[in-house]
Amino acid sequence: MSTGRKFFDYRKMLNIASLKGIFRFYEFIFPIIPLEDIIYLGEGDTPIVKSNPELSAFIGKEFYVKTTGLNPSVSFKDRGMASAVSFINYMIKKFKIQELLGICASTGDTSASALFT
Description:
By secondary structure, the chain is mainly alpha-helical. It has helices spanning about 5-15, 25-30, 55-60, 80-95, 110-115; strands spanning about 50, 65.
């Protein structure tokens, strides 16, 4: 097992909310955001489930799927929105912004993620 894999597997065991879910890979997502500015509601911390035997047989090896429907708003778009809202939170604190209006153009799921966050 690679050193990088061990590092991120170890991070799963830590009890630091800002390093859970998608932010377990913090260095690859938004390393400029301080950990205390991350807003995390469980996005991306969904299980990987083994597929049915027929699909695995068709592919020729065991196959797993990520159950993204278990995100807080039941959308894969929660991952991106968690990053966006955390970045906005960071910018508000960094530049001492008093008022901010956030707008999200969407047909539904992305806006639902934004409202939930």
